[in-house]
Amino acid sequence: MTASDREKVISLLEQSQRQFSEAIEGLGQAQCAYRSTPDCWSVGEVAAHLLLSETVFLDAIQQMLAGPPDPDWLAHSAGRTEVLEKVLLDRSQRACSPDMLLPRHVPSHAEVLASYQQARARTLAFARDIDAPLHTHTFPNPFFGVLNAYQWLLYIPLHNLRHNQQIQEITNAPGFPR
Hints:
Four Helix Bundle (Hemerythrin (Met), subunit A); 7 helices; about 5% strand; single chain; 2 strands; mainly alpha; two-stranded antiparallel ribbon
């Protein structure tokens, strides 16, 4: 990973963490459980999904790096970074989470905050310390095709920023408990 790649990922990880923490800080149980419509997630469900996703994504990156590099990594992942940056931050198109990342258990507000901080600390430590050729290891993404490990690492904060927008939409809904 280049110095600028590392700086970009760390900055986005810190930004998305700050936004998430500010968005859910001080919310009560009723606010965390509120759904604006039956088919939309609550803040608690979004938080549970983010927690699960971050752990799964970082574990997948580490598994990619344990395997052999993809000799065709450039052809497989070319142009995907720009697509991720554009598409993940655009909430005008909804996406359905893969089944394995659906929030089946919603922890308490305190558990969410503590677990999120731990998961993010682990991801930040990885981003700061990794000294491996992330671009040469690839794995398919259900929405974007083959991504390299750097793109998967970038996916974590971009995915978080997308869901931070979703949390903002929920808390701005007319029926949201105040």
